[in-house]
Design a protein that fits this description.
Ubiquitin Ligase Nedd4, Chain: W, eight-stranded mixed β-sheet, Nucleoside Triphosphate Pyrophosphohydrolase
Length: about 180
């Protein structure tokens, strides 16, 4: 958590780190207006686009993990739902439209302050590399580039989707508790 904020964004007063009354953890608190600055995890949302027996993956054109494969995913934007975020990220990274299915995997990436949510999806029509992708490609489940995957959370989602064989077998949970885990 970044506790380096020296001045209040509301009134400009100086801040200190303390446990506010009624709370149970340290927060950045303004000494003037007593605004409490909460720092919470960011949400990453994505999907695993499937067409027939193949899954669409994107080769990253950005850091972290430049040149590695991933499922389409990224940070949610304000004003959008989880599903809208998954659709937008797929379009941005793979120029592809999808029909979002069900939520099937949640990964807590504690060290990065993130929660990753993955949906099943049916790929609709054409696809091409977006600005954040060097390449996009369909992979058969037997030809997945496991040793070239960018993020543990994406690997977890892919493996669970393949284990479930596309059926709605509930939501699978995974926790990554390394302090230097690359973000999506």
């Amino acid at each position: 958590m970044n506790m380096n904020m020296k001045y209040c964004p509301e009134c400009g007063g100086t801040t200190s780190i303390k446990i506010p009354s009624g709370d149970n953890r340290e927060r950045v608190v303004c000494s003037e207006c007593e605004l409490i600055r909460y720092q919470n995890p960011k949400i990453v949302v994505g999907c695993v686009p499937v067409i027939g027996d193949e899954i669409l993956l994107c080769k990253r054109a950005i850091e972290p993990r430049y040149g590695f494969w991933t499922v389409p995913a990224g940070f949610m934007e304000l004003g959008e739902t989880l599903i809208q975020g998954a659709e937008r990220e797929t379009y941005e990274e793979a120029c592809a439209k999808v029909n979002i299915g069900h939520l099937f995997a949640i990964v807590d990436v504690i060290g990065a302050g993130q929660v990753h949510a993955f949906y099943t999806a049916d790929l609709i029509g054409d696809f091409a590399p977006g600005q954040e992708s060097l390449d996009v490609k369909l992979f058969n489940k037997n030809d997945m580039p496991w040793d070239q995957m960018a993020f543990e959370s994406g690997v977890f989602a892919l493996r669970k989707l393949l284990d479930d064989d596309g059926k709605n077998n509930g939501i699978h949970y995974h926790k990554i508790d390394r302090r230097k885990q690359p973000s999506s």
